[in-house]
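Cross-posted from the bioinformatics board.
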Amino acid sequence: DIQMTQSPSSLSASVGDRVTITCRASQGINGNLAWFQQKPGKAPKSLMYATSSLQSGVPSKFSGSGSGTDFTLTISSLQPEDFATYYCQQYQSYPLTFGGGTKVEIK
Amino acid sequence: EVQLVESGGGLVQPGGSLRLSCAASGFTVSSQYMSWVRQAPGKGLEWVSILYSDGSTYYADSVKGRFTISRDNSKNTLYLQMNSLRAEDTALYYCASSMVYATFDSWGQGTLVTVSS
């Protein structure tokens, strides 16, 4: 199984900050990585797939990068609506696996 | 507009069975990757099962042999038959779809399954 490790598990940031979340796979995943945002009491929302391809309607302040085993999600200027938990997911092989999540909180 | 609506959750005793449904609109379930993902209370996301458009299925080891994913094209609905339920199966179960990859583009609102005596 491919293990997905996110860091940090939580962070505190201010409105306007640039935030970066890291996701590391236990083996290469050929860029087959997706990112999700989940707000309390809500279903997850897909942000991007294939490492850096934004889903329709997702603002360009979200960006993804990486290759091999190391990937990042960056929010260029944090806004109040971005405070949430973020998950990465690999779809290189089964079982499909998620990272443990990164909770982004208000400083 | 893609919409997924889950139903069928509830309280069940250990060893019992439950069938979840996911009614889709805005697309046909037979044309996309259809999945179930669960989230235990206060925990992260866990993939459960996926059904390809060609009928292929995959399962997490934790549910293999106990859960069965299927679809009814005439009703445009995805199902998850859950047998031999355990306390550790307690979670909010989400239905999700994806057009191209084995990921989760669209999500339902979830249905809660509680396994307890």
